[in-house]
Amino acid sequence: MTPVQIKICGVTNLRDARACVELGANMVGFNFYSKSPRYIEPAAALPIVEAMPPGVCTVGVFVDASAEEIRNIAAVARVQCLQLYEPTSPDTCSELAREFRVIRAFSTDSHFRASQKPTRSLSLPIATCSLTLTIQISVAELA
Asked: Is residue 58 in some structural domain?
């Protein structure tokens, strides 16, 4: 059985990245979706990626980017893993999984039901793929 791994995304500076690792994160994520408030330039992520200790996986987070764009950004930032959100196509995910570890992420909203089946199948090599269901909960919703 694969152990649970903890990934913290949206890191934008070295101090936060080091804190993530000190608190037990196995993976540190950098958001390369330019419309996100947690966006970081790939060149700005590079020194943070290079400062991570061995055994910490660095992840590039992408939303609806082409395979070429993802490869270019990953090369600049030198991330080890890609987290791909929809609407990134299954074909793009499969193509990139030949070169990188891929985490396929699906966002949820109030209409999401776990029983919903994907509209198109996704086939990725088992050794290089993870599947993540991202659920965002605000602190106010927990009160």
From this structure: yes
Residue 117 lies in a domain: no
SS (HEC) of the chain: CCCCCCEECCCCCHHHHHHHHHCCCCEEEEECCCCCCCECCHHHHHHHHHHCCCCCEEEEEEECCCHHHHHHHHHHHCCCEEEEECCCCHHHHHHHHCCCEEEEEEECCCCCCCCCCCCCCCCCCHHHEEEEEECCCCHHHHC
Structure confidence at residue 90 as a pLDDT band (50, 70, 90): confident
Residue 91 lies in a domain: yes
Residues 114-129 pLDDT 10s: 555 454 444 444 344 4
Task: Record the pTM.
Answer: 0.76
Q: How many domains does the chain have?
A: 1
